[in-house]
Amino acid sequence: MKPVNVGLLGLGTVGGGTFNVLSRNAEEITRRAGRGIRITHAAAREYDAGSLPGIDDISVTDDAFSVVDNPDIDIVIELIGGYEPARELVLKAIANGKHVVTANKALIALHGNEIFAAAQEQGVMVAFEAAVAGGIPIIKAIREGLAANQIQWLAGIINGTGNFILTEMRDKGRDFDDVLKEAQALGYAEADPTFDIEGIDAAHKLTILASLAFGIPLQFDKVYTEGISRITREDVNYAGELGYRIKHLGYTRRTAEGIEMRVHPTLIPERRLIANVDGVMNAVLVNADAVGPTLYYGAGAGAEPTASAVVADVVDVVRVLTADPENRVPHLAFQPDSLTDTPVLDMEDISTAYYLRMQVSDKPGVMADITRILGDAGISIEAILQKEPAAGAERASVILLTHVVKERRMNRAISQIEALDSIDGSVTRIRLEHLNVD
Question: Is the dihedral of CA 142, 144, 145, 146 positive or negative?
Fold first, then answer.
């Protein structure tokens, strides 16, 4: 049978890994796909030919549009990243009747609705397993393996850079800024680390996971996003004393009122498996009604782990090249006409527990004022940790864990606490999820 011709856009870290995996495992991949798969054309402005054995045997150009317009190409793999020209290239490939595989989570999160509608009209596939959690097959698990279930919630450590920073802060007592510099030196963080440390990268991925889990359109603009740059080593240590670990968590849940979608630092009980996912590793915990909790763990980035997911998508596309488009697995797990308009909740309308840390005057009556404010707001306290002031200091650290309460009420209570004369500065607030699966 005639081999399937692939055009590869991008020969950077993931593009190079994809080229090498397809070349090295060509025989095994052919056995799985039922047809040969060969990269015949690639587009890249710069690449390291020495690290890509066989690259001289294909046509390489700096004009990506010439690849998507080539009539001999069956599948386009988009690995250049970013919003533009990636969006234009993908839409052009679809218009030309080509199937698309991408690892671009930003593109899918912001423009996926438009892209999938165009693909549906043209009868082609857009596969994006590598867009979330690198080599972990979480999209396939949700879209296919858990198709019999109603998914109740999922929680993910889906950015390796943030997880590396928090792990180093906990294990070695280091400060955030110090670890960030090391992450940049190691290549885990970009020179501008904003997307990683402020949660934007994780929010892109959570947008995709929530759509797959609950059958809603992609809505990146409705994800509440909070970064980890204000987490201190004191917070990490206090959380540990109370039996928790701080993770930069992506969390989405179906409630009677709507869908929660949020990314923020989160205390998780240290006994939970996901709390023990360290370094640059990723993990996603899914709780569903029939199967219960399932945990997916592995490398969330890197050349060959991500290439593993890219090539798996190519194999899937090749397997169904001759299938009736109506009988393919839908892009967002649910048939396009079955997506719902379930509202996404505003952050003030979600309910969770909280960790609160504040600097207070070391004098009688302070705790009474704080507990009165919380009590008046209907907020009950689960645990209190009070640290004695350092020698000669007049301020002490007080740490509180609360029971579950609506964020709106907590916001009002924090404002009132911060207004007390006995409180120095702002109250540090970190949300807490027990991730119970009973």
Answer: positive
pLDDT at 363 over 90: no
Please, which residues have CB within 8 angstroms of residue 116's CB and are 6 or more apart in sequence? Answer: 126, 331, 332, 336
pTM, whole model, 2 decimals? 0.92
Antiparallel, parallel or unpaired: β 4-9 and 151-157: unpaired
User: Is 205 assigned a catalytic role?
Assistant: yes
Q: How far apart are CA 425 and CA 408, in angstroms?
A: 21
373-389, pLDDT tens digit by residue?
999 999 999 999 988 77
Nearest to residue 231, comparing CAs of 432, 434, 433, 430? Answer: 430
CA 101, CA 309: separation in Å to the nearest integer?
10
Q: Give the Cα separation of 343 and 353 in Å (integer).
A: 22
- Radius of gyration, CA atoms only, the chain: 24
Q: Look at residue 187 and tell me whether its pLDDT is greater than 90.
A: no
CA 184 remoteness from chain centre: 20
Of 98, 105, 140, 205, which residue is the catalytic one?
205
Q: Which CATH number fits domain 147-299: 3.30.360.10, 3.40.30.10, 3.40.640.10, 1.10.10.10?
A: 3.30.360.10
Closest CA to 365 of 404, 423, 318, 324: 423
The pLDDT tens digits for 263-285 are: 999 999 999 999 999 999 999 99
DSSP 8-state secondary structure symbol assigned to residue 344 = B
The span from the CA of 58 to the CA of 39, in Å, is 7
